[in-house]
Amino acid sequence: MDINKHWAVPAAAAAAVLALIAGMYLAYQTVWGTPLRVRDLLLRQAIQQLRESPQAMTQVGIIDGAWYDFSSDELDRYSLEERKRIFERTRRYDAELAAWDPIPISEQNRLSLDIVRWSYARTLADAKYPWLGANNRLYPVEQAFGIQKDLPNFLLSTHQIKNARLARHYVARLEALGGVLDAVREDIARQADEGVIAPDFIIDDSIAQMKAFIAPVPGENPLVTHLAEKTEAIGMGSEERNALINRAVAAMLETVYPAYRRLIEEEGALRKRATHDAGVWRLKDGAAYYADQLKTLTTTNMTPDQIHAYGLSEVARITAEMDGVLKSIGRTEGTVGERMNALMADPRFLYPNTDTGRGAMLARYEQILGRVKWMLPGYFSHIPKIPLEVRRVPIFAEQGSAGAYYERPSLDGGRPGVFFANLRNTAEVPMWAMPTLAYHEGIPGHHMQIATATEIEDLPFQRRLSYFPAFGEGWALYAERLAKEMGLYAGDPYGDLGRLQSELFRAARLVVDTGIHAKRWSREQAIAYMQTTTGMANSDVTAEVERYVVWPGQACAYKIGMKAILGLRDQARRELGPKFDLKEFHAVMLENGAMPLWLAQRNVDRWIAGKVGFSANAADSR
Length: 622
Prior knowledge:
Oligomer: single chain
Structural class: mainly alpha
Number of strands: 3
Strand order of the largest sheet: 1-3-2
Number of domains: 4
Number of helices: 24
Radius of gyration: 26 Å
């Protein structure tokens, strides 16, 4: 008898049992216990967070429309209980990650841990302010980012109707919209009892926006016509298609429109109690809240006074540079702001304020982005495959929206990145200002940064999707400067003025945001300062200032982030000398995902040290 053959089967079986036990243990630890790898813990936390947010699941977009998609027919819960639950979950998750702090882990895992834990800490900072909205926003209803505007935008641009299942889920979400708005209405009444009411001009804008949204008959509302267009495009059968459209019309008539009317009525009642004061200084612990917002949004410890002073100094520097360019094209009379105001109104550089003119603007943006796209390989090692589209801001949302914004793609790239251009008034963006706006929102700006992070599969889930305003907006403003270095403004002083005006605009934001929220500037004072300083259109400036009112600190992220990124590049050039490689620097910045600026500094320091060490070792070997 061959004893080895006799024992072969039992040994194999034992090995299989041991492997099964080990696999079950690993699965248990990963799903319920303490995962054996920090990346597994981060993934578990990310998945659990996504499972609890149907809208985040749609934004990620990796399962929408599949047979196992059981979330894209729901909207996020809106309640104080949900806010409390999120804080409790964040504390629990942070405690799980804290257990890894003393454990030796790789540099990339340490970076992931630090990024996520910093984000958790900033989320928990909001727990100190019980008077915030249930969604942790200062004013849940407002003209720039209010939930009454964001939910329709979410359905129109984020929820993709790619098959019949997603069409049915779209209608289910439409039917749930009224209930969410009623929960918001109750919440803003609670906030009012705690002394938090939006300024009167914000309420006026919000009411006007909501009235415009429900002005069409239900069947002609964008939420219904969008469904009709998309279901036709996917070839849905006429019987089911008509039934869904009828359900959508009924939802608008019976649920959505009445909820908007109730919200308008609530806002109208609050208007009688509102003041004209713009800043958060008037709220309980308003100064502490603003300081927390600045820390979260700039990822620095800069104080309002420091940011205000830096803004003033940058306004002076950029204004002097613009003066030189203006003189070079024969514009010598008046202040820089006055000369820019006249240039803004020059009909030679304006598209007609008609549908034809707006269509021409969108085509021009496509042309500008097409030109820069072919130059990217000379400056970046990773060129995103995710496409970029240019679209018009939905008409109902134009008033109160920024001049442009970017919407991130889905994780799998199935939904493209989108540069939304606000075409409410073509005179707001003369032809010479269009390139800079395209570079900022598209490439090499937001799309370059966000699509790159999305495509780097080696990064943990959080780092592929995370967004830090100082990093993201700082990069987009840096991209405007990079465009000049790429030669995209060569021989075009008007285009360069557009770039400088954009940077001046961001410097003035530092002054205005801190002016409103820390120095008690009025809305009118802020508008006058920004319009006089930049020469921008009054309607554009007004929308911008009112945006700063409702999102304190966000406007400070741009220049502070740009300052940090330029500083890191200067440091790398200085310390590396001829060994500095711009493509490598961009890879270090973009291919690690977004992060707080202090961690970006650490990352660049490590890259510099690695290159210096490699050079020294190479010299020793020779």
